[in-house]
Each structure stands twice: as C-alpha cells, then as structure tokens.
Structure prediction request, 337 residues.
Amino acid sequence: MRSLASDNNSGVHPSVIEALIKANQDHAVGYGNDDWTHEAVEKIKETFSANCAPFFTFNGTGSNTIALQLVTRPYQSILCTDAAHIYVDECGAPTKATGCPLVTIPTPDGKLNPELIRHHLHGIGDQHHSQPGAIYLSESTEYGTIYTPDELKAITAFAHENGLYVHMDGARLANAAAALGYPLKALTVDCGIDVLSFGGTKNGLMIGECVIVFRQELIESARFVRKQSAQLASKMRYLSCQFTAYLTDDLWLKNAQHANRMAQRLYEGMKDLPDIHFTQKVESNELFFTMPRLLIDRLLEHFFFYVFNEETNEARLVTSFDTTEEDISTFLHVLKA
Prediction:
C-alpha cells in the first residue's frame, strides 16, 4: 500500500540494503569494535566535525533521551515548543529518563526564538524551582517549517549566555538542509548545537539513529548513558554501515531533495482547490492544511493519513524519498474527484 501518511512508512533505499548485505559477511567483533562502525564514525566526523563523537542507537526516542540525559540534571527543566516530538509523541520517555519536566512554549509555526525562550527563564537560583537546563529544537520542525542558520545561531548564543545546552532533534535534518541548500554541518555544529540526534530512517535507512556529541565535556559520559538507556547494539555493524552508505555520494541529499520536490508537487496541485487552507508554509516534506471533515472522511476511504488536529480538521501529508509521481497524481485525482 502506498502512503502519504508518514516518511516512516517508506521503504529502504537499495544502497542501504546493499551496505547491510556487505556487512553481513563473516563474523565481526560486537558493540562497535568492528570495521564498519569505525568507517561510519570517520564518515560522520568528515561530514560534521573531526572533534565530534557519534553514538549509534536503535531509534529516535532512544537518541533523544540519551541526548537530553547528557545535557541535564534531574533538578533541571527542558524547554521546547508545545508541538515538540518529545512532548507529544514520546510517551513521557524524556521526562522518565532525565527526571526533568518539559516546559512547553506555544508557537504558531513550531519554531522557538530567544524572546519566546526568555519569558520562561524563571526562578533562576531558587532551590524551590526546577532550573532551566536545556533547549530542545527539531529541524525540520514538527510543522515542517525550517530554522535558518541565523535563527539557530541566535538561539544557541542566547542559550549559552544563560548556561543552557541546546539539543537538536534531526529526524528530518536532511530535508531542512536540502531545502536551504546547506551542508549538514552548517545547520548543526556551525550554529553552536551541542548535541544532535541524527536521523535517517525517515530518509532511506532501515533502522537506527545516531547521537552526535559536539561538546567535548559530554563525550565521555555518553558511552555509559547509551548503555544504561538500553541503546547499545551488540551487532553494531548493522546500524553503523547504513550511515556510511547514507553519507556517501550525497545519498542523504538526493533522497531529501526528491521528498521535498514531491511535497511541492502536492502543494501546487492542492493550493488552489476550494475548501483547502494551508496552515503552515510548505518548506520541507510535510504539508499541513485544513479541509471539511466530510472531505477528510471521503479521502480516508482511499488513502491513509493523519488528522493532526481533530478540533480544527487539520490534516498532515508527508512525502518520502520513494514517493513517486504516480503517488502524487493518484492522490490529486481522487481529491479533485
């Protein structure tokens, strides 16, 4: 079944499958002491920073909880938007893992800025209040919008001036970088991000994510936090080899560019239809829009997708690296009918 519901529903890129097959040769030392993991670590350092430290994990929630444990203490709080993935979609895992409450900040477009954050820096130094410890961002955001490098630098500069770390959830970082025309490092380490959850399963990988630590004082403890978080793979090569393929010959970029193009095709076909109102700019591979409930229900008879907000009849469509022109044409044909 073809789907525009989520890029999690997409398949695995053939180059990644090939990398997995090659890694499945003979025996290899476990827990990351293998040639494939060493190669992937060097590829990530080459892509982001020679001084960074990558830690491969099983999934996005695991990556986020590890990253947030690294940058907080249990008496601190984590600042994020009210649409943040760690707040809406991770079943309280970050709070359970860190002991930190999530302080949510309402935003119209899923993006934070220094002024919005400033209003939530309360009770500094007061032992009766949780102390702000970290800021959580996602790039692209949960609404498909994108932070520019200048916006990211403003947030990280403000955070560091106030003694806060910044964690970026990069589940769709590739789509943001492709849309802006920047390399991955230009939206992360070059902008002052402290820890990155680098995703790939939404853009062609089979399984696995990677926590990339940029702050040197956090690197040593990351190994232990990963193990304690049940995210250390024994057969690490099957996670790590995918990232080598992903970062070779700009596979990440080609996949993301295609997904973004398909989103634009979908947007162009929908934007002038009656009763459809786009609630967010279509900047990456996600589309958010409202339509009458009757129309949503009729469409759901033909296609699976998510209703993001039941009260306002806001729906979401997501394109993927393997979304085809036929997928777009079929959806638009049914919608217009």
Q: What stands out?
A: The two ends are 21 Å apart (CA to CA). The first helix runs from residue 14 to 23.
